[in-house]
Amino acid sequence: MKGFFLTLEGLDGSGKTTQARLLAQFLEEKGIKVRLTREPGGGLPGVRDLLLKGEALSPEAEYLLFSADRAEHVRKVIFPALEEGFWVISDRYLDSSLAYQGYGRGLPLSWLLQVAKEVTLGLQPHLTFLLDLPPEEALKRVSTPDRLEKAGLEFFKRVRQGYLELAAREPGRFLVVDATRPVDEVQTTIRESILKLFP
Ligand code: TYD
């Protein structure tokens, strides 16, 4: 595999989407081929509405829908781009499911990981930026909450804690960034970390 697989994770409102876009711009200016993508919806676009606007689903159904999208995303978008030497930047990936459906909704991580092994073909990001934000701040920043965001503060607290635990378990892959700082400062930190890895 020739490319590089990078993901951005964090609570809703943490600024992932803005940071992903700025990072893609920076890399493209350096002559790197970039494929910017996202979950949910990167593989099966219709899944977004079903998950975020539809009726409340069981956590199991929710996870399997995110997984169906991810299976398509990995096979049709991420792997082909990596094979062609692109840097793939995904706004959310498997860690979102572990944090939201695992820590947030209480599904056993062992089951999530078992399913994920087949779904992702074992593909792990080379690098993951966790944009860390207190849940109170995250909720304040979300203007029109979708169904998952309506789950409220206690849910967000569990998700944040989950993300921090995931990051602590894999310090070689995760970089935790303080997302309460201004957009340009967060972006500078992200760029500097990448330049350290690829001087
Ligand atoms: P996203 O579109 O990234 O929303 P935002 O831009 O507000 O962060 O994600 C939509 C929601 O889907 C978000 O609340 C997180 C949730 N989600 C999961 O619960 N599990 C998953 O596996 C993924 C990919 C997203």
TrEMBL record:
Q: Which UniProt keywords apply?
A: ATP-binding, Kinase, Nucleotide biosynthesis, Nucleotide-binding, Transferase
Q: What class of enzyme is it?
A: transferase
Ranges of residues in domain Thymidylate kinase-like: 8-190
The answer, when asked if Nucleotide-binding is one of the entry's keywords, is yes
Hey, what's the signal peptide range on this chain? none
User: What catalytic reaction does the record list?
Assistant: dTMP + ATP = dTDP + ADP
Q: Name one GO molecular function term.
A: dTMP kinase activity
Q: Name one Pfam family in it.
A: Thymidylate_kin
- Cite the EC number: 2.7.4.9
Q: Which residues bind ATP?
A: G10, L11, D12, G13, S14, G15, K16, T17
Q: Which residues cross the membrane?
A: none
- InterPro entries in the cross-refs: P-loop_NTPase (IPR027417), Thymidylate_kin-like_dom (IPR039430), Thymidylate_kin_CS (IPR018095), Thymidylate_kinase (IPR018094)
Please indicate which superkingdom the organism of origin belongs to. Answer: Bacteria
Q: Which GO terms describe its biological process?
A: dTDP biosynthetic process; dTTP biosynthetic process; dUDP biosynthetic process
Coiled coil located at which positions? none
Cellular component (GO) terms are:
cytosol
The protein's job, in short, is: Phosphorylation of dTMP to form dTDP in both de novo and salvage pathways of dTTP synthesis.
Q: Which HAMAP family does this one have?
A: Thymidylate_kinase
Family under the similarity heading: Belongs to the thymidylate kinase family.
Instruction: Indicate what this protein is called per its UniProt record.
Output: Thymidylate kinase
Species assigned in the record: Thermus scotoductus
